[in-house]
Amino acid sequence: MAGAAAQSGADSSHGSPYYARKNSFGLLAAFSPDSSHILLGGAENRMLLNIGGSYSRRLFLNRIVDWQYDAELLPAALESDPVSTSVNNQTSPSTATFTNDDGPILSCATYTAQYSFVYGGVTYAGTETISCNGRRWTIGEAMSPIGFQWNFRPRHKTQPFFVGHGGYMYSTEPIPVAAAGSFNFTFDLGVGVEVFRSHTRSIRGEFRYHHISNHGTASFNPGIDNLMYQVSYVFGR
């Protein structure tokens, strides 16, 4: 009975001891300046920028935790890859330099290799250097229909929380390299702090591990690991 009374009090719009909503809507922006091999991904120097919204539905509430279903829709999900330039310094059969602008590269570490081969009775030799030269932004959209959020200390205006999602991302070009495909799966895990300005409105700041992978649906699956910073404005009742 005491638990039912607490739940009823939480649902009341007046005099509730809880800073918790039954239904919440949010506007969010998230950014990551870099990627590296954190857990699963192998593509380096990738940037992410997400803009979209969220919906949360309360599943369980007591004085310790506010457990919510949470989904995100990202109509603007942008990913940035470093693009490469190859410089061929030929020394045989004549001295010449050839430069080509190539597509996205897996890593920005400069790579130099010597070559020598015979073609048509002529020996070709020299060195080729591959390095990063600029970036390419790819536009996409993403959705995470599976997600949960756990807010702790729901009777306080400042609440630490834990969050996790699973979903997909579709981009207009293959990411992070040409052989990796345009359709990818995503998941994230994060922690943050939610500060309530009133019983219905709050601001969230959080830090997430975010992973992108095609799960073997394309010929190459390097994966992308990012640490993302996200800010949300949330309202509801």
Structure report:
- There is one protein chain.
- By secondary structure, the chain is mainly β.
- The chain has two domains: 2-81 and 136-236, Porin; 82-134.
- Helix content is 4%, strand content 66%.
- The protein is built from one helix and ten strands, in the order αββββββββββ.
- The chain has an eight-stranded antiparallel beta barrel.
- The longest helix is centred in the N-terminal third of the chain and has 10 residues, at 2-11.
- It starts with a helix and ends with a strand.
- The relative contact order is 0.22.
| Strand order within the widest beta sheet | 1-2-3-6-7-8-9-10
Kindly state the percentage of residues in helix: under 10%
Specify the biggest β-sheet.
Answer: 8 strands, antiparallel, barrel
The computed structural class is mainly beta
The stretches of 5 or more residues where confidence is low (pLDDT under 50) are 1-14
Number of helices: 1
Rounded average pLDDT: 92
Order of helices and strands: HEEEEEEEEEE
Radius of gyration: 25 Å
How large is the share of residues in beta strands? over 45%
The shape is: elongated
What is the CATH top level name of the largest domain? Mainly Beta
Number of domains: 2
This entry's quaternary arrangement is single chain
Number of strands: 10
Cα separation of the termini: 24 Å
> What CATH architecture of the largest domain do you see?
Beta Barrel
